[in-house]
Design brief:
By secondary structure, this protein is of the alpha+beta class. The protein has two domains: 90 residues, Immunoglobulin-like (Sandwich), CATH 2.60.40.10; 100 residues, no CATH class. It has four helices and nine strands; from the N terminus they run H-E-E-E-E-E-E-E-E-E-H-H-H. Strands 1, 2, 4, 5, 8 and 9 form a six-stranded mixed sheet that branches. Strands 3-7-6 form a three-stranded antiparallel sheet, with no helix packed on it. The longest helix has 38 residues.
Amino acid sequence: MKKSLIFLFIFSILALPLVFAGSAECSQAFDPVENNVTIDLVQECTTCTYVNLTSVELPNGTSLFFNSAMDKEDIHYSISYLTEQEGKTYYSVKGDKDGTVQTECFYFEVTHNGKNAPQGSTINLFVIIFLIICGGLLGLLLYTIFHLIQWDFDAKDLIINVSSYFVLFAAYILGKTYLGNSFVDEFLVWLIGVGAVTMVILPIIAFVISYIKGGLADGD
């Protein structure tokens, strides 16, 4: 029993480099693609009469097994595939290259926006921007409430609030384009909804009330 366990342990250690070596041999198939879209998994072979998709390994390690024939067009073989998870996805193909059955492995990146993952400097920049936006939203809300209580919320204050609201849209577009983070996108959409109340509706109410109150005061 002990000899069997020792043998399995030694075998697993020796097998690990083989597993990682197999992954290292995989070639990048194409540039990053967006999640939840249908793409073509591709392969080129000048001497094949057929190429089959044999397996797909998802970023979470789940393996999907196939034996599906890929569509042939000259030397190009392809098959449709719906991306399921963000991260690096591997797929394997099998064909009769040079009359001998051979397999090859490819990989591609799946990202939220279909672009390359941002670098550290880009992430740091957006973190600073989001902190400024959150602080600005809170500051504008307190400013609006204070001047509403004082009945002196003027047109300049209204313009500042509404203009700042459109900055949120700009931040959302930039984040979706260059950052590609689903949590940040959802958070900004939530901020846009909250900002519609705190930066547009409430300031308009504050301006109207202050204007009416000021007119009544002048009349007295």
